[in-house]
Design goal:
This protein is mainly alpha-helical. It has helices at residues 2-8, 20-44, 51-65, 88-91, 112-116, 138-145, and strands spanning 95-97, 109-110, 122-123, 125-127. It is 43% helix and 7% strand.
Length: 149
């Protein structure tokens, strides 16, 4: 128990909230995670693994499996567009034409998704952020939303 309290004291979640039920919930969650970490180390026979690495790996695995629901608000659509639409340039992926070269004015490349399905198909479009050639509708969406496209 002393070792558990020592390890859990490095995470300041308990000090950041005022509500008692939140403190109890996060304390129980931390205890559960630490117990899972100890069991994981015993089963896998791992000697040198830090609790923080275990927590980060757990969070990454959870985030890869969870799909975030789209929020639909009831009622009419707003008259003015949302200011969030302008933040997409930092994180969003947009299609762009494959840039021309000296020898080809209208170049094409093999689509990454079609190639993975052993289909031979050329496209003139690519993702500007990933720099991967993709067909516009289905392949572009599959590449950016599915783990195994």
């Amino acid at each position: 128990m002393d070792r558990q309290d020592q390890v859990l004291s490095t995470f300041p979640i308990m000090r950041r909230t005022v509500k008692a039920y939140k403190k109890i919930f996060f304390y129980l969650l931390d205890m559960t995670l630490y117990n899972a970490f100890c069991i994981f180390k015993k089963i896998k026979k791992i000697k040198k693994m830090h609790f923080t690495d275990f927590r980060l790996n757990l969070v990454e695995q959870i985030l890869t499996t969870v799909t975030i629901p789209t929020k639909t608000s009831p009622g009419r659509a707003p008259i003015n567009p949302s200011p969030l639409r302008l933040q997409a340039k930092q994180w969003a992926h947009f299609p762009m034409k494959v840039p021309p070269t000296a020898s080809k004015l209208h170049p094409t490349r093999a689509c990454k998704v079609c190639t993975s399905h052993k289909k031979r198909s050329e496209t003139a479009w690519m993702c500007d952020r990933c720099q991967v050639p993709l067909h516009l509708e289905k392949c572009f969406k599959d590449f950016h939303t599915k783990l195994n496209y």
